[in-house]
Amino acid sequence: TVRFNGQQLFRICDENTHHHHLVCERCGKTVDIEPPDDEGWIHKVAESHGYTVVDHTLEVFGLCESCREEDK
Predict the structure, then answer these.
(1) Is the distance from CB of 24 to CB of 67 less than 8 angstroms?
(2) How far apart are CA 36 and CA 40, in angstroms?
(3) Stated pTM of the model
(4) I want to staple 67 with a disulfide (CB 3.0 to 4.6 A). Which of 18, 26, 42, 55 is the partner?
(5) Using one digit for the tens of pLDDT, what is the confidence trace for 41-57?
């Protein structure tokens, strides 16, 4: 799921591959991105707050190239 403009959007993803998303805040375009080889920082942050990581999702929000071009 992705939260977008106060809505929660659902997207079907391949459950067999671990990936993250880039999400355009304006148009909602979403791109799958490969995670880095070392995601140990997630476990370190969780552990510093007393958590054990079971699973995670990561969505990075910004403006896609098309929406940025509209602003010019």
Answers:
(1) yes
(2) 10
(3) 0.65
(4) 26
(5) 999 999 999 999 998 88
CATH superfamily assigned to domain 2-70: Ferric-uptake regulator, C-terminal dimerisarion domain (3.30.1490.190)
Q: Which has the closest alpha carbon to 23: 66, 57, 72, 64?
A: 64
Per-residue three-class SS string for the chain: CEEECCEEECCCCCCCCCCEEEEECCCCCEEEECCCCCCHHHHHHHHHCCCCCCCCCCEEEECCHHHHHHCC
Domain extents in the chain: 2-70
Mean pLDDT of the 28-52 span:
89
